[in-house]
Design goal:
Chain lengths: 253, 321
């Protein structure tokens, strides 16, 4: 079974691109499925089902969505195999741009849109930087110049990726993308494989459900912004810092 | 040696690769610049010639000048939607040509354009093959950011960046690493103003340009700064822009122009028009003399309509037209 991780900022067009692309794969008689990861709620599973795509959804709820993803990805692969899928897609939004679900030896796709601003490729981080394929969407509504500038910025962040332009509404470019998704190797398990980029270090009182604000309630891995405040302004001092955990300063890969 | 340096004189070297002058100076050969007839083989040492050769290759790669220019694109016919052979078996479009694409909605115009953009190798639903300069091209046209075969201009495209015209063009020039950006920006701006009629300054924010001005700037910018040799236009609205001149600018900048249109004036402005039906190219029509004569009449009708629009805007009644 081909396994592809698709990620991208919210509203960049991931679901539309996946739907259009899987349509081409399905038309060749292959069985396709999606595991949709989201945080609080999603109706996209209905949308996939309506298009004949086998689907499971996972809502991270109170958990960090990326930790939730990596803790469940092997089970998703086993589900795909049990369903007899030829192609399985995992779809997850990179909600804080800090993480990426991309796994070594598994085709990694990042979906990003022309409207998100030319500073975005730089901001997105490992989701884009560690991708094999970058899909740029919403090209039909911006000028040729902006498309070229945006693509150049993407290239500046990830020089190795193959860049494709796909229109999620008309499907232009999705046939081409489908040919790239079906080449490459099969995945029978992701057990033992490694993430391309480490997850963020997050272990503080807020991770455990704290809602109150103030230094008295902050424990664990907490870091303060250096605001260079004038003397006399009350600061809450903050707790003892544990220091960054491995991987917080751009490690990984 | 990749370049034929041994048969060149100093003058020949400098005229072909002006940037080599700096290397001559850096290596203490500036005296040679004063003896242009000297042959390179007799005057320069082997190791320096090898260095010169490498240097030229590096600069050419950086400047993109060793890239073969796209002078024509050929489409080899494939299948229609029902699997039968496409009627038109081969269509070659050359630089400076304007080819219109006509056909009803859903007939396969977009697929044709997508086949060109993806440089199809019999691996798309139509089974078409696209050749560049008569050859099967490499993967670079498919996946790279620098080489895209097709630039697109359509009606619903807008500027979304919060920049002035000057900043916007400078940004585009920078991302393309274009030489002499100042001159290019001036040229684009001059052309855009000519096309738009209604003039705008370089410090106008791109988002506050009128529809006609935006379209004019997009066309002039694509003509001068876009790396793509093929420009695909999805109609040019007949408002606030000189369409004839827009096409002329693209031709002057050696683009291959494909235009999807149902506008009779635009369709007759093309050198040829391709008819699409049921997913296949069914005919290639060259405008007849009669059609060209009719173009003048169509333009007259157009001018008259524009006049009526103008009168409406002025608050006039159209009791007599």
């Amino acid at each position: 079974m081909r396994f592809v991780t698709v990620s991208g900022p919210p509203s960049s067009g991931k679901t539309a691109v996946i739907l259009k692309t899987l349509e081409h794969i399905r038309s060749t008689g292959k069985k396709v499925g999606v595991v949709k990861f989201d945080c609080l709620s999603t109706d996209d599973d209905e949308l996939f089902r309506k298009h004949g795509v086998a689907v499971r959804k996972g809502l991270a709820g109170a958990l960090c969505p990326d930790h939730y993803f990596v803790s469940n990805v092997e089970e998703c692969v086993q589900w795909g195999l049990a369903e007899g899928l030829d192609v399985l897609i995992s779809e997850s939004a990179g909600l804080c741009n800090r993480c990426s679900p991309h796994i070594r030896e598994v085709l990694a796709v990042c979906v990003i849109d022309n409207l998100s601003g030319i500073g975005t490729p730089k901001k997105i981080g490992p989701m884009l930087k560690a991708a094999d394929i970058v899909v740029i969407t919403k090209g039909d509504i911006v000028s040729q110049a902006e498309r070229e500038v945006f693509a150049a910025r993407v290239h500046g962040v990830n020089t190795k990726a193959r860049v494709l332009h796909v229109n999620g509404i008309t499907g232009q470019g999705s046939y081409e993308l489908s040919t790239v998704w079906t080449e490459g190797r099969d995945t029978a398990t992701v057990e033992g494989l490694r993430l391309r980029f480490s997850m963020p270090a997050a272990l503080c009182s807020y991770c455990l459900g704290e809602t109150r604000i103030g230094s008295d309630f902050q424990m664990g891995n907490v870091r303060k912004i250096d605001l260079d405040l004038p003397t006399g302004v009350k600061t809450d001092g903050g707790p003892q810092e544990l220091g960054p955990m491995p991987g917080t300063d751009g490690g990984g890969s | 040696m990749k370049h034929d340096l041994l048969h060149l004189t100093i003058e020949g070297l400098l005229s072909r690769w002006p940037f080599t002058q700096q290397l001559l100076v850096d290596r203490g050969h500036e005296n040679l610049i004063d003896s242009p007839e000297a042959a390179l083989s007799g005057t320069l040492e082997g190791p320096f010639l090898a260095e010169l050769d490498e240097f030229i290759s590096g600069m050419e790669e950086f400047l993109g000048t060793n890239e073969q220019k796209v002078s024509e694109v050929t489409i080899r016919g494939g299948r229609t939607k029902d699997g039968s052979d496409e009627t038109v078996r081969e269509l070659t479009i050359r630089v400076g040509e304007v080819v219109c694409i006509v056909g009803p909605t859903g007939s396969g115009k977009s697929r044709l354009l997508a086949d060109i953009e993806w440089v199809a190798r019999g691996d798309t639903p139509t089974g078409r093959h696209v050749l560049v300069n008569g050859e099967v091209p490499g993967d670079k046209w498919r996946f790279s950011t620098e080489y895209k075969l097709v630039a697109q201009l359509s009606q619903n495209m807008n500027f979304v960046m919060d920049l002035t015209v000057q900043e916007f063009l400078a940004l585009h020039a920078e991302s393309r690493q274009a030489g002499d950006p100042e001159q290019k920006i001036q040229r684009i701006w001059n052309w855009a103003n000519e096309l738009a009629g209604e003039s705008f300054t370089l410090d106008t924010p791109v988002t506050s340009l009128s529809g006609g001005q935006s379209r004019a700037l997009m066309i002039a910018d694509t003509a001068v700064l876009s790396a793509s040799p093929v420009v695909l236009i999805d109609e040019i609205e007949n408002a606030g822009i000189d369409r004839q001149q827009a096409l002329e600018i693209l031709i002057k900048e050696e683009k291959i122009v494909l235009m999807a249109t149902h506008d009779p004036i635009l369709a007759l402005m093309g050198d040829r028009r391709v008819v699409i039906a049921n997913g296949g190219m069914t005919q290639v029509i060259e405008p007849s003399d009669r059609e060209r004569e009719n173009l003048d009449e169509l333009r007259a009708i157009d001018t008259r309509m524009m006049g009526l629009r103008h009168r409406l805007r002025q608050g006039e009644r159209l009791d007599t037209i």
